[in-house]
Amino acid sequence: MTELSGLSFAVFHNIIDGKPRSSSKLHRGVDSTTGKPLWNAPVSTVEDINDAVGASRNTFPAWSSLGYSARASLLNQFADAFLELAPQFTALLQAETGRTEGIAQVEVHWSPLWLHYPDESSLVMEEQSGPITTRVSFSKEESVIAAVSGTSTGLSASVWCGSVNTAQKLRVN
Q1: Same domain, 99 and 154
Q2: Which residues pair with 15 in a beta bridge?
Q3: Whole-angstrom Cα distance, residue 164 to residue 173?
């Protein structure tokens, strides 16, 4: 087991700058399958958010200087540690959402696939030292709109290109 094996699934904190933080304001959900109250969860304050943003800004230079492969390796390690606790995360998800055990297991086991993706992806075409920079070139406006909005038609495309008329003319092959 990893260091995470001591992780509590009954007491929750926000993690800010690597340290647990509670709050004077708490939220308590209800298990929809039993009607019983769940655990207390801290409600973040503006100060919590500002501190988290500050911590991420302070950490970003070290993270980005690791290089793509090293970052992907750390994400893989996190995914593996997460899966070691799959039964606990499955039970947590069931209690929070009312999902069946089977559906919760699927979600728990699929989630780490997103963490493994960077190591298996060749999307990053060029990497520079320093800040993380990904460069992708597009030859047509509709390709950019489709990449950003997930579609080249409809309201989403209209928002991205700023014109309903332009969006209606777009087609991505």
Answers
A1: no
A2: 20
A3: 20
